[in-house]
Amino acid sequence: MAKRILTIMVAIAIxxxxxxxxxxxxxxxxxxxTFAVSTTPPxxxxxxxxxxxxxxxxxxxxxxxxxxxxxxxxPRPMLAESWEVSKDGLEWTFSLRKGVRFHNxxxxxxEDVVASLNRWREVSARKALLExxxxxxxxxxxxxxxxxxAPLANLPFVLAQETCQPVIHPKEIIEGAAPNKLSAYVGxxxxxxxxxxxxxxxxxERFDDYSSREDVRGGLAGKKVAYLDRIVFKNIPxxxxxxxxxxxxxxxxxQPVPQEYLKELRETSGVNPVIIKFDMxxxxxxxxxxxMKDPKMRKAxxxxxxxxxxxxxxxxxxxxxxxxxxxxxxxxxALWSDTGKEVYNQNNKxxxxxxxxxxxxxxxxxxxxIRFLASATQFHHRRPAIMINEQLREAGFNIxxxxxxxxxxxxxxxxxxxxDILYTRTVEPTPSDxxxxxxxxxxxxxxxxxxxxxxxxxxxxxxxxAVEEFKRDVIxxxxxxxxxxxxxxxRGERDRVKGLQPIYIHPLWNVWLEK
Length: 515
What we know:
- This protein is of the alpha+beta class.
- The chain is built from 14 helices and 20 strands.
- Helix 8 (about 295-305) packs antiparallel against helix 10.
- The longest helix has 17 residues, at about 460-475.
């Protein structure tokens, strides 16, 4: 069974168009890497929130999990040396690497792993992914066993997920810690925490006693060398200010950059533009607590939207988006299909009004107000949200756009009584990430059926059939969300930056500054 599970993992992984870290000669230690970013994380407690900024601007450097995703989104051992699964699929045993130390000098043991995973199973926004885990037990100092109530074929994917990852903390810090109440930010990663001033910066510095793996991989897996003395993630909401700082050399890199600046970056001496082909899917979620509870209302919103105009507003350049009808996967992913293309990009205001009336909604100013929550501080959130708001108003919806800074959006989206429509962005690297459709209150028997199949099935074609059924019965008919297309990203970096991978989360290990 273990071999079949590995086969299915490889088969459904993303076929990425990039390789691992740069092989250019001459890595050099030293220097401070200043990365200008558009937002600040709402917390550094990665167990709690799915916000990607937590991982990108801190968590992936400070903490590590038992596994990590490589450049093809295949889970690889990280703090684990290896793992094996019993023939009946009910026990997974992870052997731990020996000699790994936390930033406080303590050696990693199975007690830390058990305490961290137990806490994640209590507080995580994605704890349902491990609901089949009865217990995690220590097997001596350097092994842990997951005891399951039913097979869980995607366990390594869950342990390696990029956001809301079950990272490992020292037992004395994590055991019993309330959400967002960590007493210290201590991990095993290549960089250690120095300072976080929300809204201003996060500062990390090299952990000299870091215990690296030796296998060379891309993505977030494999060998990590901390060449940089210090990393500063500087929060600069204004894209023009980030771009100006990149040009002068104040910043070594900035991401995201509005896509209309591609030509300017190409013409700027000392600066390289990097197009990130696998970025995110802009998406609108619906609260199930109010006016959008009726699926006909959700269909009405979907019917009204002109995806081409929305995606152009989001990117400012037709080279940076794809009008992809698949609400889950990019075109190059193994489970992509055009199922549901007939309901994508309809741009039909009359049909939208008809469906809304069938749901009991009165178009125009007399209609029940619809609260639309989105981020004001990120251009790839703000601009498409404004376009969506305009289109829905033209279709007769009494909609009110509530633009907030990103940390406030993350805070308010947890209370689904405070909004009806939410704009954000998402990505489904693996089938288990389809659970994202349940993030804001949606659920259905058909959804759970797919989750059950993904949890145990090792036959790719059976997984594909289940996903296709889900697309027809849930995505098309129940409309838990509407993804608007595929968005590509733009990063700008100085010539002296070497080894930085062309991926969205931009890990800065194996990266150096040429002197």
